[in-house]
């Protein structure tokens, strides 16, 4: 009788545990609702634009993001501030070339979350086949199964072998210098 009672108690506990402890869930990133706005500065000005997220997922456990990734379509880069069509095309062609992102050889970039502590997200960013660990603060919200994460990420382009116009490598470049840091304003929204 004690064995039966023990087994029934164990089964009841297991059933209760399975109902109250939710497993992590994975939500695909909405490529339509998500966005990235980039900004790069030089001594004489700055440029800004957008680039598309082509895929991604967010892993959530107990209303907290615990993992995930997103892929950036490097061929989708757009410059918003250059209004002259010919100059805009020339600019995009240059930053897509081997001087910058070498888009034909490296058509995507990727970020993979490795750790989330509070609002600090850590992960591996891969650009031009080079992977570096980065950490940044983010605004994270989970509401009725929808996940959103917003962050302003500062990236040193020279970490990814993008040296064109950098004073680190061309000291006498003067006012033609392009700052090493650029920013990505990332807005991820789950489907």
From TrEMBL:
Domain Lipid/polyisoprenoid-binding YceI-like: 26-191
SMART domains: YceI
Coiled coil: none
Signal sequence, start to end: 1-22
Keyword annotations of the record: Signal
Superkingdom in the source lineage: Bacteria
InterPro entries the UniProt entry points to: Lipid/polyisoprenoid-bd_YceI (IPR007372), TTHA0802/YceI-like_sf (IPR036761)
Database matches in PANTHER family: PROTEIN YCEI
Protein name as catalogued: YceI family protein
Protein's organism: Aquirufa rosea
